[in-house]
Amino acid sequence: MSRFALIVAHELKLAFRQGGGASLALGFFVLAGALFPLGIGPEPGILSRIAAGVVFVTALLATMLSLERLFQGDFEDGSLDLLALSPLPLEAVVLAKCLANWLLAGLPLLFAAPLLALILHLRSDGLITLFAAMLLATPTLSLVGAIGAALTVGARRGGVLLSLLVLPLFIPVLIFAVAAVDAATQDLSARSALLALGGFLAAALPLAPWAAAGALRQALE
Amino acid sequence: MSLFEGRDLLCVRGERNVFARIGFALDDGQALVLRGSNGSGKSSLLRLMAGLLRPAKGTIDWDGESIERDTAANNRRLHYVGHLDAVKPSLSVSDNLAFWSALCRGQIKEDAVRRALARFGLAMLADIPARMLSAGQKRRLALARLIASPASLWLLDEPTIGLDADSIAVLRESINEHLGEGGLAVIAAHGELAIKGASDLDLDRAAALDVADVLQ
Prior knowledge:
The structure holds two protein chains of two kinds.
Chain A: H1 3-17, H2 23-40, H3 44-67, H4 72-77, H5 79-84, H6 90-119, H7 127-151, H8 158-185, H9 191-220
Chain B: E1 4-13, E2 16-26, E3 31-35, H1 42-50, E4 57-62, E5 65-66, H2 71-76, E6 78-81, H3 93-105, H4 110-119, H5 135-148, E7 153-157, H6 165-180, E8 184-188, E9 199-202, H7 203-215
Helix pairs in contact in B: 3-4, 3-5, 4-5
């Protein structure tokens, strides 16, 4: 097993042993999304208009909740020192942790999204695009969020600070993800918006681990 | 020229000079014991040696080449045991050690993990969750990392904290074996750990000499 796979497996094991694991972000996603029909009323016209936005805003918040502990636990118990001193570059360690975070918190959202879409009366011709947009957007959220998690590691009340740092960075992803689904439900092409989401992911894959590793090195000094 | 050598090191933390003009030189099979009062910079010097901190001035070389040149090679040759034990409470004792051992080696070696646990008296506890361990047992688990995977340089930050007399003896024995095999060790200690033939670096005295120098 390569060192990269070893860290991913270790993270997954830790998450399942500590309980909760994948289910916390997922539970938040479904519950928070289901509150909207209750608050706004069951009128299908209004709900289907806001459905895509609600799905992505709750997905974004659910991802952020899962990010708070991404490096904090390792920082507090000294594991981060050892990870930084492992033969694997710290950038690759960060990428492995992002992948584990996405598998635990991002991927389950993909499978819950159709349920939420149903509750919110999203037009069924937008479903495939919703799935594709989630598939492209959630890894970007994990990666970009890792930068915030690395910057706030060691800070008291880091969770609030994290959201202030990271939420603005999530805005472009939100705009294009919602635009893709809206285009699909209005029988327009979602291609350009999906391509933009793919572009964000392609940019975040090398840049976010690099930035987060830099922030972590700073935190260890 | 020595194998592991630091020259004219200046360490600044929070705009305060922790120490200045510190140097050391170590060769195969040699140990260095860092002494000094609390806050004299023993931990900082160990973190400098590990490459976790960067010196504000001065150089640290391994075999004539700066340790910052090739971080991966530097990381591969060292073990660092700091104040924190890096023990995950929800994993079993052997899973904790197996992870770090495999991460250092690049492959899983169960017999090495089992031997390291037995050496530090944790064989009976291998399958229980690490949250059940006492502080001293956690420390032993952290120290077992040293022998679960090979590395030529050991950096130990007050490794005897929380250990009972038997465990200190095991640690001393492990360090002596490591030195006998040509390894290097740098240990921050307050005197509980007598390593034969180790040289001393007293950070308090170095600081006093430095002040005297400046006054002249």
